[in-house]
Backbone:
């Protein structure tokens, strides 16, 4: 994994992971930008990049 500042995912990040068929408890977040979410697997250290939908990123749904 190297010397990355990986952090636990937030609720919105977990929702995005589940939409991409990933288990949130297996990943840590390295970088979160408007275009993509960069994750690292806790067990294997492999990185994954999830592309965000640009339309969904600009519209915020109230809960």
Residues:
């Amino acid at each position: 994994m190297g010397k990355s500042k990986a952090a636990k995912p937030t609720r919105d990040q977990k929702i995005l992971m589940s939409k991409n068929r990933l288990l949130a408890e297996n990943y840590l977040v390295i970088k979160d930008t408007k275009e993509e979410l960069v994750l690292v697997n806790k067990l294997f250290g492999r990185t994954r990049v999830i592309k965000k939908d640009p339309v969904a990123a600009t519209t915020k749904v109230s809960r």
